[in-house]
Amino acid sequence: MSTDAIALPRTELASRPVVDALHEWVTTVDHKRLGILYIVYALLFLVIGGIEAGVMRIQLVRPHNDFVSPQVFNRMFTMHGTTMIFFVAMPLVFGFANYLIPLMIGARDMAFPRLNAFSFWLTAFGGLLLYFSLVGANGLYGAGNAPDVGWFAYAPLTSRTFSVGHSTDFWTLGLLVSGFGSIGTAINILTTILCLRCPGMSLGKMPLLVWLNFVMSGMVVLAVSPLTAAQLMLLVDRYLGGHFFDTQAGGSAVIWMHFFWIFGHPEVYVLVIPAFAFASEIIPVFSRKAIFGYPVMVAATICIGFIGMSVWAHHMFTVGMSSNANTFFVLSTMAIAVPTGIKIFNWLATMWGGKIEFKTPMLFCVGFLFQFLIAGLTGIMLSAAPFDWQLGNSYFVVAHFHYVIVGGILFTVFAALYYWFPKMTGRMCDETLGKLHFWLFLIGFHLTFDFMHIPGLLGMPRRIYTYEPGRGWDIWNLIVTIGVFFQALGTLVFVANLLWSYFKGKAAGNDPWDAWTLEWSTNSPPPAYNFATIPAIKSRRPLWDLKHPDDPDWKYE
Amino acid sequence: MSPTNIFAPVSTSAKSIFGLSIFVLAVTAAIFVVVFALLTYSVVKFRKRTNDDGREPPQVYGSNQVELAWTVIPVLIVVALFMATARVIADVQKTARPENAIEVIAIGHQFWWEYRYPALGVVTANELHVPVSDPAHPTPTLIKLLSADTDHSFWVPRLAGKTDLIPNHPNSMWIDPHQTGLYLGQCAQYCGTQHAKMLLRVYVQSRDEFDRWIQEQRRPAFASDAASRGQRIFETTACINCHTVAGTVADGRFGPDLTHLMSRDTIAAGATPNTPQNLRLWIRDPEAIKPGSLMPAMELNDQDLNALTAYLETLR
Predict the structure, then answer these.
(1) Does the N-terminal peptide bond of residue A295 adopt cis geometry, omega within 30 degrees of 0?
(2) Complex confidence, ipTM
(3) Given CB atoms, is B302 within the 8 Å cutoff of chain A?
(4) Beta strand B102-109 pairing with B141-147
(5) Which phi and psi (to 5°) does residue A226 adopt?
(6) Could you report the per-residue pLDDT of A251-276, keeping only the tens digit for each?
(7) Cβ-nearest to A384 among B48, B81, B160
(8) Nearest by Cα to A357 from A171, A514, A136
(9) At what angle do helices B276-284 and B302-313 cross, to 10 degrees?
(10) Residue A399: φ, ψ to 5°
């Protein structure tokens, strides 16, 4: 196998009318284009969700502020949470999985290209449906009405008694539709990985990213299904006179919590395992070393997958479960710290003795390592049920899960974007702008989310549109809000960088990072069929073997 | 100091939570220091130098001994943390009911708290009064938690961890405050538009003061002729659909009991001090104090408003 045999000279097409190009993007079944569609779609929603967060932070900058009404504030946190989880994080995860998995396993496309397109458009439609509530749900004066039940939409606030009009229906249907999209893509990823690997790629020789996305997809199938069921039950309650969650008629509000969190907690791992996947590809390349303890990394991920399905009720320590149930969920939740810790140590060992090059993707990964360490430790605090009786539903929890989702997941997504942007577009991202983005975002992140822990410890609950003075919360909320402006500035630099680099960035070549996995053996961007000839591999790092024929990996694995 | 600081406990369960918190914080802080130092060291030490020779570093694929070490040590830490946690859960949740406990039923409503003392025949709202509990001779309070509508959560950080009030799912919790004083908190489970102004005030009083308060709350409402016009307005408008004034025709349950309204320091679930001006504004335009609250504006003219306010001012 040689690089030349796989890569084809780039064919330049004559420029075509915009409508034709657009038509191709809308009707495409190519995994790479769908991957990019997912990512662009998610980035658009990232900006919208960010603006919603900004509105909340301006409102909370001082006690008794009246920047927005309580009604608007409640819609903002509902839309922010729902958007960020379902229409930013999930599409980003699926976008990268779609783009990278066939390239990394030496396949020409996903197993079910048309299902792939269908799933993307379902997800896209779900997001549009959610935001259509701003027009379609009956509100005041003919204007619409976004849902205001919170992203976990506890019963019975979602019943027709307490949520009149249709905003909750848009929320339910939006998630129902995009949930089908998620399940479709997850099945597609599972099948692709099981059936389309190139010759020589046994399960034990797959890149870690592929392994981790395999576990992620399995979890999506198991976790999104109960959410879908719960959404249907809620619709039955609202329109067909059902009483699943109707507490006035003997229904149970607690059952909704179980349904939601048996989706909701695995969902955290659905999002963070792909973040681990990015780190597991990027850290080795920029440390110039093979990943340390590959089999252990795989085992730890599978472990997280299984245990992650049995920790959901740690979101419910305050609902009055028996002491036995509380104790069980303490144990299962604490147990997750072990495989997660193993991962951090393996990344650490991968860097140990390497030659670390701090290009932008690696900077974001190092930020991730430090921040995920802290997120894990505050997670341990919350897993101790009695401590959670104080911390649960306070700003401490808000700080904790933003540490996971922003400090962990978003940082690695940024790393992944900088790392694979050259492959997707054929052009390098600008390093100076990239580093500026990193430092601005890092400062903003820490101003916001480090200091957000403190009002939680001082008794400030989440989801309040205003607060009383004299509780010692004022100064911390001010600092938290200041941090948001740094994050927004960093995001502006990021968007500018993407646009500038897309048009003006310097040509990337096939393998700008001197990396080792198969996607770097083909053109940037890859042709529609990915590989001229299907590659055959002998180790986990086929391009290392190629570059070091005297000392190939397959001798050691 | 913050009046809602979780690290300033004054009640047994809050104290045992505090003890566990310190243990967990100490363990996680130790882990943080070690791993943070290792990460920082490796990032600094193994960065690519400017005089690098361009050769790849030695490739290391893993080590079973090392993996075993950083599996076993975390397992031991988790076991220790789990044991400590399980013990506190049992301590707090399995406490037997003491003989002399005072029982209060707390009912969460969309944006206010109803408190009933069934054994003492007292009903009040938003300001909970309990006796101080001397650790030597404890007089704890058992709070049964119910909800009339959506989910709420009872959280007074210095007295106890939070417990949710869920319709059709009765809960309960203990408090035994060791110091007199006013303890603040607020609803900690999103319950609708005005979740933010569903504030909690717990007055911990000496036994004598508490008994006196109970005596006053059990008296019927004070009636005076001066207020009769206001009383007539109260009893002939929608007020009585939602509010109770014991001993009169007003027996609504949807809103707070007003029998001893003037014994309370605040109105609108702690949103504003209970002054005649605020009370008048609250009746005229509740949205001005608490937008989204379920109390409607009563649309009274100024004279009626003044008379009604004067009547409410007599409910001591």
Answers:
(1) no
(2) 0.95
(3) no
(4) parallel
(5) -60, -35
(6) 999 999 999 999 999 999 999 999 99
(7) B81
(8) A514
(9) 130
(10) -65, -45
